[in-house]
Structures are given as C-alpha cells and as structure tokens.
Amino acid sequence: MKQGKASIRFEQPPEVVAAASVVGKKEGEGPLGACFDEIEQDPMAGQDNWEAAESELQKRAAETAIRKAAVGKSRIRYIFAGDLLGQGIATSFGMAGLGIPVFGLYGACSTMGESLHLGAMTVAGNCAEYVLCATSSHFGSAEKQFRFPLEYGNQRPLSATWTVTGAGAVVLGRQGGTVRITGATAGKIVDYGIKDSMNMGAAMAPAAADTIYRNLVDFGLEPGYYDKIITGDLGTVGKEILLQLLKDKNMDIEKQHMDCGLEIYDNEKQDTHAGGSGCGCSATVLAAMILPQMEKRKWRRVLFVPTGALLSTVSFNEGQSVPGIAHGISLEY
C-alpha cells in the first residue's frame, strides 16, 4: 500500500462510521454554531479547572461518536487521541473511564490528522474492526500553559489565533460509512526558524505546503482532483504564506483551499484576530462541517491537512524556534 515517499493508498479503505463535536460558547456563536453536536455554555464544563474541563469535553465527544456509530463500546478496540497539554493529561483523564485501550498522541494541532492516519492503518491492516480517533483543546488551558494566565489580561497581536474550546471524535471501521479514507500522507517536521509564539500560522505554513505538495506528487495528482484542500489552523497569516510557498513550486491551490481556523469563527464579529487554532479546531470542523458536506455530496474528494506548531514552553524559553508539522488525509465519498 506504500505510495511515493511518504504516502499510503489503502487497498481496502477504512470508512468513517460516525463523528461528533462538542464545543464551547464562543465556538457555538460562530458560523458553524448550528452544526455542532453539543455547545457547552460553561467554560469550566462543570469542573474545577481548565484542564479538567477539556477532559470533560473530550470524553463527551468520544461518547457521542460511539453512540452515533451504534456499534457498541465493546467493539471499539483502540483509541488514538491527544491534546496540547503536558503529558497529554486532557486525554489521560478524559478517556480513562471508557475502558478502551488508548494510544496517547502528540502532534500539536495536527494531532487529529495523526490519529486518523494511525487509526486508518490499524483498521486497514485488519488489527481492529473499529477504532476511535479524537482530539481536544481549550482556550483557558492552552493560554495557561503556553502564554499567559487569563487573569493577566495580556494584549494579543493581530497575528495571534484563538485556541478553540472543543473536542472532536471519529469512529473508523471496515464498513458502515459513506466517506472513506482512501489515502494518507505522513508529515515531516519543517523548521523555518520562526521564534514568534504568537504567530503560529507562519510556523505551520511551510509544513502544510510540504505535506500538500508531497501528497499530490506521491499520488500523481493535480490540485483540481480534490474539491477542497482544507488545512487545520493556519489562519489569515499562514494561509497567505502557504499559497505563496506552493506557487513557488508551480502549484496553485487557491481555488481549492480552505482553513478550519477561518471557518469556525467570524473574525470580524468575534475578534479572534488571525482565526482559530488548537487540536479541537480541525477536529470539530471535520465532524461538524467537512464530513456532513461530503455526505451530502457537495464535496466528493477532500484532502484534510491538520497543521501543528510544535511549541514547547521549555524549548521556547531556551530560545529555540517553533517547528511545524502537518499530516494529510485523503477523504472520498
């Protein structure tokens, strides 16, 4: 099933059996508000801290996806899930009560792509009948860990994105869905030396360009093969850089390109500056908008490219750059 240098073409494509999204109040007030499965009005989700709130959102998304799949929790063999927090604590506590074996993942905001890639390989390799792929993020927990506590009230530059409070989950199986994962392209770490922790779009765009280019080359495709090429959370800054980097390689995806971070919020009315970000950004938009649009046959082929800035408080404080990574998932009706 190996294709080119970094891709896989699945001979028996895994199918998306069900998907679910749970978001916070701000996300529910955005353009996709009517599309989410659940909108939690309380930013603490009834918990004592931001981190526990994120775990609660991830648990709810997972339980909702499993319920919608109607296959029974006992038939979900593995969970592939992750988040942005240290040691993946949102996932550790969020998935602990499900009683299903868990692979904890970290690919920053690209984690949903990583989980879908690994989950699809597991199902296609006949190692599981069904798997659950999930990610989450929370504005409060992300600001607390990577930038400033909310109580500080710091000003945000226009290049900054707003971390999505939300979680998305997808059940993959050998049968039972209308959208299939026909291929996948693993991303490599790309570092252009960006050191601005408030400009994640610039850090991630080179990795997104590399993965999109590699996917099209590995499969011998032109951009027009896909109805949409959808990145995870480049925002306004990263989108412009991405398009230019690919044009420099004589590849124009401007007609096909969308970005989840620019879809989930109304940047003018909601004052999110460059758009949305976080593990939950691409995951919730996938479940709430991308898959439903494909099921309605509005889009038949989508290249889904969650993007991640590998930002660490340790490396950042030591003066290191912020590398980027992106994983490509080929979805077809």
Structural notes for this entry:
By secondary structure, the protein is an alpha/beta fold. The chain folds into two domains: about 1-175, 3-Layer(aba) Sandwich (Peroxisomal Thiolase, Chain A, domain 1), CATH 3.40.47; about 180-330, 3-Layer(aba) Sandwich (Peroxisomal Thiolase, Chain A, domain 1), CATH 3.40.47. Helices cover about 35% and strands about 25% of the residues. The strands form three sheets. Strands 1, 2, 3, 4, 5, 6, 7, 9, 10, 11, 12, 14 and 17 form a 13-stranded mixed β-sheet that branches. Helix 2 (about 50-70) packs across helix 3. The longest helix has 20 residues, at about 50-70. It is globular. The mean pLDDT is about 95. It comes from Cuneatibacter caecimuris.
The largest sheet, given as strand count, sense and whether it forms a barrel, is: 13 strands, mixed
**What share of the residues lie within helices?**
25-40%
Give, in order, the helices and strands: EEEHEHEHEHEHEEEHEHEHHEHEEHEE
Domains, number: 2
What's the number of extended β-strand segments? Answer: 17
CATH arch. level architecture of the largest domain = 3-Layer(aba) Sandwich
CATH class of the largest domain: Alpha Beta
Shape: globular
Low-pLDDT parts are none
Tell me the distance between the termini.
Answer: 20 Å
CATH topology group of the largest domain: Peroxisomal Thiolase, Chain A, domain 1
Count of DSSP helices?
11
* CATH superfamily heading of the largest domain: Stage V sporulation protein AD
Round the Cα radius of gyration to an integer and report it: 18 Å
- The helix-and-strand class reads alpha/beta
What percent of residues are in strands?
A: 15-25%
